[in-house]
């Protein structure tokens, strides 16, 4: 039986059009999902949209349509983005679906039964933009004397009857869970941040609202709708069959292996969510990873600054796999990053066109011209051949632990170490010269290069699926051999296999056109 791997993106608010930040999180998940599938796992990759709450209700009002019409329209933009970015999700959840209402209400009822939800009254500060409550100590004064949340969002005073989740009772048990599971929050800086927040003491959390209607009704008290974060977080359970905890999907995929989120929402995922789950007697997630924040040419990305980077525009301008590569290569995953067109062009020209593209093109053209367009027959391998081939054969093994700690940039660097070594090998072996002096040795060198490129094509497949497939097509690698099980000798290129005519894979970008 294949081992299960359940991975989720945040579900995105539908108050706005998708931008590069949303594409980034889902891309990271897509690359991991593809890697795990190639590594033999049974993967369930979930993304979707968060469609309830005051923020969405207000956005619908501004658009002059009823909330359902509004969410239907904007949710589609996120689906379109997923298609455009070649994301391979297995399910796209919307919180306005019937299956989700059922799951939220079932979780709520469990929490009422265990005594973890009680009725009270809320009086405090709320930021609609963050859909979050803040204590007075967290607020700062804005330029016009208004109160602001730590995120910069304006807050408003809210006073209304509310159900509460007894979060204050879960501090020690949360700390116990973090201690017993050192990998349950990554990277380490976020883990420390979460732990000190919990150590600072937790207050009970308001989990229902009465002043607007756009949400999941509280069972047996329909004047209340559920707090949008309790509703939203539950999506991860809904999608694998909750409340049917005996279902095949739930028993296979729960607890979730990885909730990928941005650093803005780590508290919701690493504090509130495990507390809700533990209170309901359900296992908390295995890992939450909070990545960093993108800015645009040094500025915060925001609609009001008019500097939102639309993934569609980038793909149009530079090509899909180029964008996928750049986003995960440019910034150590977990750190903040700055998007700059000059860096995008530089990476494309140096690492894609010059390093990878050039290696593939010159090697395969030589095979095509000098080996009758077929995989050459190698002779005995020399130490130099083995020095290139062996790390190439071990690439997946090298990448596995890096991917498991979401160090995408390190996994890419491991691939580029082999690419650079292969380019050095071509220069040093000079197969064009061997053609005149030692044809059998030329065939060995070209075979070693073709085999190395096969390993590289497999290793880059999760990151750049279309281009890597094109590379593997040029080596006539059968589709059923494009998994890591075939990466070893059993999938090795067979001498004599006819190869299609090679084609360039990574065009150079003309810098003036940027
Ligand atoms: O928070 N850089 O939805 P949301 C990097 N609905 N990542 C970014 C980014 C940026 N500049 N901007 C956005 C919500 N993101 C809730 C989630 S989950 C149960 C509910 C990414 O539409 C990043 O992953 O505001 C961030 O956490 C997420 O989009 C926030 O998306």
Give structural notes:
The chain is α/β, with parallel strands linked by helices. The chain contains 19 helices and 17 strands. The strands form five sheets. The protein has a six-stranded parallel beta sheet, sandwiched between helices. A four-stranded antiparallel beta sheet has the order 5-4-8-10. α14 packs parallel to α18 (439-460). The protein is elongated, with a radius of gyration of 26 Å. The model has no long low-confidence stretch (mean pLDDT 95). The structure holds ligand ME8.
Which shape, going by the Cα principal axes?
elongated
- The oligomeric status of these chains comes to single chain
Hetero ligands:
ligand ME8
- Mean of residue pLDDT values: 95
The largest β sheet comes out as:
6 strands, parallel
The N- and C-terminal alpha carbons lie at a distance of 50 Å
SS element count, helices: 19
Annotation, overall tally of beta strands: 17
Low-confidence stretches: none
Rg, nearest Å: 26 Å
- Percentage of residues assigned to helices: 40-55%
Give the amount of beta strand, in percent: 5-15%
Strand order of the largest sheet: 3-2-1-13-14-9
Summing up helix and strand content along with how strands pair, one would put the structural category as alpha/beta
């Amino acid at each position: 039986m294949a081992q299960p791997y359940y991975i989720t993106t945040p579900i995105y608010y539908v108050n706005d059009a998708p931008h590069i930040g949303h594409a980034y999180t889902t891309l990271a998940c897509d690359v991991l999902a593809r890697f795990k599938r190639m590594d033999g796992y049974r993967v369930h990759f979930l993304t979707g949209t968060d469609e309830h709450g005051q923020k969405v209700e207000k956005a619908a009002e501004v658009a002059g349509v009823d909330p359902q019409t509004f969410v239907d329209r904007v949710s589609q933009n996120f689906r379109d983005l997923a298609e455009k970015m070649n994301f391979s999700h297995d399910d796209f959840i919307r919180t306005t679906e019937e299956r989700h209402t059922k799951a939220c209400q079932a979780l709520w009822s469990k929490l009422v039964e265990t005594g973890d939800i009680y009725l009270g009254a809320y009086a405090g500060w709320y930021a609609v933009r963050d859909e979050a409550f803040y204590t007075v100590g967290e607020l700062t004064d804005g330029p016009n004397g208004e109160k602001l949340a730590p995120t910069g969002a304006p807050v408003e005073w809210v006073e209304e009857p509310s159900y509460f989740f007894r979060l204050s009772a879960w501090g020690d048990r949360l700390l116990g869970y973090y201690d017993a599971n050192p990998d349950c929050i990554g990277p380490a800086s976020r883990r420390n941040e979460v732990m000190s927040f919990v150590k600072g003491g937790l207050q009970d959390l308001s989990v229902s609202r009465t002043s607007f209607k756009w949400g999941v009704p509280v069972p047996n008290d329909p004047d209340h709708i559920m707090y949008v974060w309790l509703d939203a977080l539950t999506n991860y359970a809904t999608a694998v069959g909750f409340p049917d905890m005996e279902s095949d999907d739930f028993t296979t995929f729960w607890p979730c292996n990885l909730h990928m989120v941005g650093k803005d929402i780590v508290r919701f995922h690493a504090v509130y969510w495990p507390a809700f789950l533990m209170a309901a007697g359900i296992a908390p997630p295995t890992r939450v990873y909070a990545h960093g924040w993108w800015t645009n040419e040094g500025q915060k990305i925001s609609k009001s600054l008019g500097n939102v980077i639309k993934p569609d525009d980038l793909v149009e301008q530079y090509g899909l796999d180029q964008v996928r590569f750049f986003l995960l290569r440019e910034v150590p995953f977990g750190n903040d990053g700055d998007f700059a067109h000059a860096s995008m062009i530089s990476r494309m020209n140096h690492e894609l066109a010059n390093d990878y593209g050039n290696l593939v093109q010159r090697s395969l053209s030589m095979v095509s011209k000098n080996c009758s367009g077929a995989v050459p027959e190698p002779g005995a391998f020399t130490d130099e051949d083995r020095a290139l081939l062996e790390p190439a054969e071990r690439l997946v093994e090298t990448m596995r632990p890096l991917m498991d700690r979401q160090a995408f940039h390190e996994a890419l660097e491991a691939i580029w170490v082999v690419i650079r070594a292969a380019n050095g090998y071509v220069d040093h072996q000079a197969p064009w010269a061997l053609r005149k002096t030692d044809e059998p040795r030329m065939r060995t060198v070209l075979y070693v290069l073709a085999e190395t490129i096969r390993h590289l094509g497999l290793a880059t497949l999760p990151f750049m699926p279309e281009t890597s497939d094109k590379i593997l097509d040029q080596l006539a690698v059968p589709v059923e051999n494009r998994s890591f099980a075939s990466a070893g000798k059993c999938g090795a290129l067979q001498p004599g296999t006819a190869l299609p005519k090679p084609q360039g894979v990574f065009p150079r970008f003309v810098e003036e056109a940027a």
